[in-house]
Amino acid sequence: MYKNLKYEVKEGIAYITINRPEAMNALNNQVLDELFTAFYSVSKDPLVKAVILTGEGKAFVAGADIAAMHKMEPKEGRDMMIKGHNVMNLIETVEKPVIAAVNGFALGGGCELAMACDIRIASERAKFGQPEVGLGIIPGFGGTQRLPRLVGKGMAKYLIMSGEIINAAEAQRIGLVEMLSSAEELLEKAEKTAKKIAGNAPMAVGAAKTAINTGYDLDMKTASVLEIETFTGPFASEDKNEGMGAFLQKRTPDFKNK
Q1: Which residues is 181 bridged to in the sheet?
Q2: Fewer CB under 10 Å: which end of the chain, C or N?
Q3: Is residue 65 classed as helix, strand or coil in its secondary structure?
Q4: Residues pairing with 27 in the sheet
């Protein structure tokens, strides 16, 4: 089914691995199509409680496929950017936690892909950057919008306008990365994080993600109303009764709602 991805569901976790190591996992139209299909499958699969996204080989994603883009006319380039935005928006809004296990280069479209995920865990070998201006373009998969929201407007302007590539420690310092790991323990750390989240009520996790994403750019008064309305769904669920009952009975909850 997939030519450029590896897709596996194991113990409630979907593992999505971009598998173009010969091209440093660069994003072209085919990879974007497959990523969209994979995350759409995630959204519809009740067995999936969390997702780990990573890259095969030395790179997470080294960027968009420059060789392919160099030959594109403006309309083709615009169409590819629209496709990229559709993929990133799906990852950002799917009501399941998505963890980026950044194993190497996350440049350009790769950095944008990582930013669309909920949590970023970076190998000590990882590198991040938006070097598009050096190619005569700007980030086109959401980088000019997500990066300021993560690291602040001034730092985002510096990184995008200078094209500087930073290491994992600096990425964590500025808020682009949540956790660091040795290269050898990266996947294990991502799995541990995914399992910790997946052990909670799926409906509540999804509602929390939606409330944070939707409310982030709202004024506090409007966002507070949003939180109250979003709270209502999980509070009316079987998992609320199970979770609170388990707490009172000092046992591990057995959540059912997907």
Answers
A1: 123
A2: N
A3: coil
A4: 64
Instruction: Name which of 229, 251, 254 is nearest 239 in CA terms.
Output: 254
Domains of the chain: which residue ranges? 5-198, 202-249
CA nearest 215: which of 149, 142, 122? 149
- Dist CA 101 CA 186 (whole Å): 7
pTM of the model: 0.95
CA distances from 222 to 48, 219, 225 (A): 32, 6, 5
Q: Kindly tell me the burial class for residue 154, based on how many C-beta atoms sit within 10 Å of its own C-beta (0-12, 13-18, 19 or more).
A: exposed
Q: Is 132 a catalytic residue?
A: yes
The distance from CA 143 to its chain's CA centroid, rounded to whole angstroms, is 13
| DSSP class of 187 | H
Look at residues 96, 132, 128, 123 and name the one whose alpha carbon lies nearest to residue 9: 96
Rounded to whole angstroms, the Cα distance separating 85 from 115 reads 12
Write down the catalytic residue from 124, 132, 188, 238: 132
User: In which element (H, E) is residue 74 found?
Assistant: helix 74-93
Q: How many Å apart are CA 229 and CA 7, to the nearest integer?
A: 35
Answer yes or no: same fold for 5-198 and 202-249: no
Phi/psi region, residue 44 (left: phi>0; alpha: psi -120 to 50; beta: rest), is: alpha
95, 112, 124, 242: which one is catalytic? Answer: 112
pLDDT tens for 154-212 read 999 999 999 999 999 999 999 999 999 999 999 999 999 999 999 999 999 999 999 99
Instruction: Name which of 128, 132, 118, 189 is nearest 161 in CA terms.
Output: 132
178 classed as catalytic:
no
Is 5-198 in CATH node 3.90.226.10? yes
